[in-house]
From TrEMBL:
<dbReference type="InterPro" id="IPR016162">
    <property type="entry name" value="Ald_DH_N"/>
</dbReference>
<comment type="subunit">
    <text>Homotetramer.</text>
</comment>
<feature type="domain" description="Aldehyde dehydrogenase">
    <location>
        <begin position="32"/>
        <end position="488"/>
    </location>
</feature>
<dbReference type="InterPro" id="IPR016161">
    <property type="entry name" value="Ald_DH/histidinol_DH"/>
</dbReference>
<dbReference type="InterPro" id="IPR016163">
    <property type="entry name" value="Ald_DH_C"/>
</dbReference>
<dbReference type="InterPro" id="IPR015590">
    <property type="entry name" value="Aldehyde_DH_dom"/>
</dbReference>
<keyword id="KW-0520">NAD</keyword>
<keyword id="KW-0560">Oxidoreductase</keyword>
<dbReference type="GO" id="GO:0004029">
    <property type="term" value="F:aldehyde dehydrogenase (NAD+) activity"/>
</dbReference>
<comment type="similarity">
    <text>Belongs to the aldehyde dehydrogenase family.</text>
</comment>
<dbReference type="InterPro" id="IPR044638">
    <property type="entry name" value="ALDH7A1-like"/>
</dbReference>
<dbReference type="InterPro" id="IPR029510">
    <property type="entry name" value="Ald_DH_CS_GLU"/>
</dbReference>
<feature type="active site">
    <location>
        <position position="264"/>
    </location>
</feature>
<protein>
    <recommendedName>
        <fullName>aldehyde dehydrogenase (NAD(+))</fullName>
        <ecNumber>1.2.1.3</ecNumber>
    </recommendedName>
</protein>
<dbReference type="Pfam" id="PF00171">
    <property type="entry name" value="Aldedh"/>
</dbReference>
Length: 510
């Protein structure tokens, strides 16, 4: 039994943190949504949910706020996000700790998630002075052609349990500087961190002074309330993060009403370890990528192709790391791997391991650790040596399972690497330039993220984040992802005294 789990009164600490963060007790003490912590499995709050009628009102209010906010100059909008970043710096420890309690992330990852929020605020503040379009050469004399970018409207954000605060901030920081209002439906598994973000944002709003009411609001509830957001004609963009199953439901509904979507869905990320790889570096990157966050990152490393010439040098060391890694309370700094979110996650892990064994997999780890809490699911991460890539390797199981396969031919490894539905993140470990460039090239990795000599997880906010195929094709965060949050107009201005038509068309009326 891991005694670290029992050291802390989680329920009391949660209430203290929420009070410090400025969340009204009435919003989490007598509601109808039971909120649990994966640390002990116990219920820590009862959060008030919204009805469909509430949701309509919230969206209406956001729409009104948008109509005012879009007229505020973008650098001034950036000032609000700058203040939000300051508040996050001040409350980083409390919010990070709450993330650990509600999502089960180890302390450095809980804090890291808040750091990511701060980073995106900084990025968005800079962006607020750079929302520029092109000036384009025109074929007509005395004309000028350019593009302008305008605010879009209410941006709906639907988020998953495993990044309970960062994903919202990626969307909200960009949406706000772009002149939009935001309505956020967090995961029903992590409503408390959402309430905390709302309270922190309210402090920034107060300091800012004259922002319209309703600029950023919460919609608490399960998928049914998310559907109201998805179906509302007043929401021109929904950014939805979660499983591919969710994306299959949400995507067509948005397409039906010609709304925009940013879909950030499941991943089944892989790495290739080549003969020339720096194995020490690869070992560390693989260990973090596969076991970190208890395998509950969208970018978690789930499949590993190891060249036969280095298999025996790498895999036994990896197995050792798997058997010795510390699993325990995410509220203590001693643990590297925290708990699974809940029982369905545990059941899914068991099912996948059973199927892998039936298909020839040899399993190291994967056992449940007894903490004395019937509803807390602490697992030894599992490394499964598979003879080939068959089910369940081809599907994402949101748990710490790494399938390891041996390869002899690079082309074959690349083919298997791409032969799954998801297309989020990927890595190659090699010191061979030809292999590295091939992996990054047009017939290499088919993922939205392709790395050389680093793992699949832990992306920085400066790059565009997202994946291809069943990962949904959306991009958020850095680079030019902001363009999805604005509408583009092409403007042509005639400052001549004639009216030449494009393509030399003549249309002379009397
Ligand atoms: P989930 O799909 O169960 O839920 C995600 C969110 O979608 C929740 O807020 C849920 O209430 C909502 N939802 C579900 N069905 C809906 C519907 N029909 N209409 C509207 N809203 C709906 O996912 P989860 O278990 O919370 O998170 C884990 C999954 O998320 C994994 O598959 C993981 O890979 C993925 N994920 C992807 C990214 C990414 O950026 N690609 C990031 C984090 C997590």
């Amino acid at each position: 039994m891991d005694s670290s789990v029992n050291k802390i009164d989680v329920k009391r600490e949660t209430a203290e943190l929420l009070e410090k963060l400025g969340v009204e007790a009435s919003s989490y003490t007598s509601g109808d949504l039971a909120s649990f912590t994966p640390v002990t499995g116990e219920q820590i709050a009862s959060v008030k949910t919204h009805s469909a009628a509430d949701a309509e009102k919230i969206i209406d209010k956001a729409d009104e706020a948008f109509r005012q906010w879009r007229l505020v100059p973008a650098p001034k909008r950036g000032e609000l996000v700058r203040l939000f970043g300051e508040e996050l710096r001040q409350y980083k420890n409390e919010l990070g700790r709450l993330v650990s309690i509600e999502a089960g992330k180890i302390p450095s990852e809980g804090l890291g998630e808040v750091q990511e929020m701060i980073d995106i605020c900084d990025f968005a503040v800079g962006l607020s002075r750079q929302l520029y379009g092109l000036t384009i050469a025109t074929e007509r004399p005395g004309h000028r052609m350019m593009e302008t970018w305008h605010p879009l409207g209410v941006v709906g954000v639907i988020s998953a349990f495993n990044f309970p605060v960062a994903v919202w901030s990626w969307n909200a920081a960009l949406a706000l500087v772009c002149g939009n209002a935001v309505v956020w439906k967090p995961s029903e598994k992590t409503p408390l961190t959402a309430l905390a973000c709302d309270a922190i944002f309210a402090r920034a709003l107060k300091r800012f002074g004259d922002a319209p009411e309703g600029l950023s609001q919460l919609l608490i509830g399960d998928r049914a309330i998310g559907e109201v957001l998805v179906d509302s004609p007043k929401v021109p963009l929904v950014s939805a993060t979660g499983s591919t199953r969710m994306g299959r439901e949400v995507g067509p509904r948005l397409a039906k009403r010609f709304a925009r979507s940013i879909l950030e869905l499941g991943g089944n990320n892989a790495g290739i370890v080549c003969p020339s790889a720096d194995l020490d570096m690869a070992l560390r990157a693989i260990a973090f990528g596969a076991m970190g966050t208890a395998g509950q990152r969208c970018t978690t490393l789930r499949r590993l192709f190891v060249h036969e010439s280095v298999y025996d040098a790498l895999v036994p060391r990896l197995k050792k790391a798997y058997t010795s890694v510390s699993v325990g309370s995410p509220l203590e700094t001693s643990a590297l791997v925290g708990p699974l979110i809940d029982k369905p996650a545990f059941d899914n892990m068991q099912k996948a391991l059973k199927e892998a064994a039936a298909n020839g997999g040899i399993i190291t780890g994967g056992e449940r650790i007894d903490t004395g809490h019937a509803d807390a699911y602490y697992m030894k991460p599992a490394l499964v040596e598979m003879p080939k890539q068959v089910s369940p390797v081809t599907e994402e199981t949101f748990a710490p399972i790494l399938y390891v396969m041996k390869y002899s031919d690079f082309d074959e490894a690349l083919r298997d690497h791409n032969a799954v539905g998801a297309g989020l993140s990927s890595s190659i470990f090699t010191l061979n330039l030809q292999e590295a460039e091939r992996f990054l090239g047009p017939d290499g990795s088919d993922c939205g993220i392709a790395n050389v000599n680093i793992g699949t997880s832990g992306a920085e906010i400066g790059g565009a984040f997202g994946g291809e195929k069943e990962t949904g094709g959306g991009r958020e965060s850095g680079s030019d992802a902001w363009k999805a949050y604005m509408r583009r107009a092409t403007n042509t201005i005639n400052y001549s005294k004639a009216l030449p038509l494009a393509q030399g068309v003549s249309f002379d009326i009397e």
